[in-house]
Amino acid sequence: MVTNMVKYLANIETGILFQVDEDKEQESNYYKIYLMEEEEFDALQGDYPHKKNLSQGLKQIQYCKIETFKDCIQGTMKVPKGDREQIALFTFGFYVKGNELFFLGERALLGDMLEKISGNISNCTLNQILLVLFEMLIEEDVLYLQTLEEYLSDMEEKLLLKIPDHFYETIIQYRKKLTIFHSYYEQLINIGDQMQANVNQEFSREECAAWQIYANRTERLHNHVEALREYLIQIRELYQSQIDVRQNKVMSILTIITAFFLPLTLLVGWYGMNFPGMPEFRWKYGYPAVIILGIVIILAEFIYFKKKKLFR
Length: 312
Hints:
The protein is α+β, with helices and mostly antiparallel strands. The protein has eight helices and seven strands, in the order βββααββββαααααα. It starts with 5 loop residues before the first strand and ends in a 5-residue tail after the last helix. It is found in: Cell membrane.
């Protein structure tokens, strides 16, 4: 089997992390960190308990989860990353046992993250290194949420000036994005709570406190998403109110036009009866008189509506 596995050694004392060949011997003061594919992980020889559980979960990663056992920690991640236009979902698995840490999938993303933390993980345990990587996954999320909030604020201001086209399509698009992040942060909160609960592992007090800080941080991001979802609902209600105002204006115009011509319609209907006994038919000034009467009625209605401030 051709392997594309990438192996790193992390110096425990200095925190420096560097890539090595697969067959290079490891010294006692180094951690082993591997980037590999699922097939390579399945083919590993040795004592890796609960490996089949992780392999089964990697076939279709639906959400972020972590499982702590007495002899290992494993889990899967489904991480949303994106911009204002679209969101991409990155999935990978991880497995921690002894002095070995395995990452399965998304080699480019995880490789870049490992390069960034090199030198900043001195005297850390593998669980703490895993936590550092988890924190890196959300370090720029607050900026992304702020960008979304600024866009929603801009959309609200434009809505007050003009009702945009395809508004509901835009609202649905952003509601889907916020729903994805809402579920994501909720899952990360559960991971942080589970790790700091220290059920099957003997974590130090510092490790438990660090995972609690992580859970608190993801909870704040979760609350930020909650606020944006409520803001989106308010914008949708504002849009509906603007639609109602515009419809009311149209109905007002139609009502005024109808009121203008209703008296003239009455005159037409009245004199359209053509009864022989109607004296206006024999009066030579009957036609001009009806015209003048119609003009007077329209002028009177115009003055009345103007006083009532119905023209805006």
